[in-house]
Design goal:
The structure is a single chain. This protein is mainly α. The protein folds into two domains: about 70 residues; about 100 residues, Di-heme elbow motif domain (Multiheme cytochrome fold), CATH 1.10.3820.10. Helix content is about 60%, strand content about 0%. The protein has eleven helices and no strands.
């Protein structure tokens, strides 16, 4: 079953509707008496959450948790797609060159995210994403985007993880393979366009 963005939004709206059915959401102080009367006629008031049964409060908490988990999973999944990475101006050329390489079937995160548990991946993705966002927002990225030493180690480990059966009987495995030494241009092609990246 493929979950489209449209069906995901409908599910979230349905869950929020159920949530508001069980527990009305607190409204700002100062509503007119007419609005208060309308709320009372519908059986809703700002005091209702505090007068609800524990079962309803538990159900609303579970629903809120499910909505939060779904939104977190959807955000994590969407932020790992190549289109998401290409949305930044500084990544346009990198994305274009990646599309014509032999690795175009792999998402950015398959090479650039550490192969670890979900907590480690989230921590790395958050730190790296905030760094990229700051550089993009303030337009302080260099014309030639270079891989950091930490990112290079992650990429090298991912190369070995995918290509282990090819290199397992070679000296590369024993000495800590440096795939990028010879295969540096496989992922994103060679060099930049003449004149570097043109900002705006």
């Amino acid at each position: 079953m493929v979950l489209t963005i449209s069906s995901f939004i409908h599910i979230v709206i349905d869950i929020l509707f159920l949530f508001t059915y069980f527990v009305s959401i607190d409204h700002p102080i100062g509503l007119s008496s007419l609005e208060d009367k309308l709320l009372e006629r519908k059986g809703m008031s700002w005091q209702r959450p505090f007068n609800s049964s524990p079962l309803k409060l538990l159900a609303s908490g579970v629903l809120a948790g499910v909505v939060f988990a779904l939104l977190t999973a959807a955000t994590y999944h969407a932020s790992g797609s190549p289109r998401f990475c290409a949305a930044c101006h500084s990544m346009e050329l990198v994305y274009t060159r990646w599309q014509i390489t032999n690795h175009k079937q792999f998402a950015c995160i398959e090479c650039h995210l550490p192969d670890t548990n979900i907590v480690g991946q989230l921590a790395y993705k958050t730190r790296s994403g905030l760094n990229d966002l700051a550089h993009e927002a303030f337009r302080v990225y260099p014309a030639a985007i270079l891989i950091s030493a930490n990112s290079e180690e992650i990429v090298k480990r991912n190369c070995v993880r995918c290509h282990y059966s090819t290199i397992e009987n070679t000296p590369m495995v024993q000495g800590g393979a440096n795939c990028l030494k010879c295969h540096r241009y496989l992922g994103h092609g060679r060099g930049l366009e003449k004149g570097g990246i043109k900002v705006e």
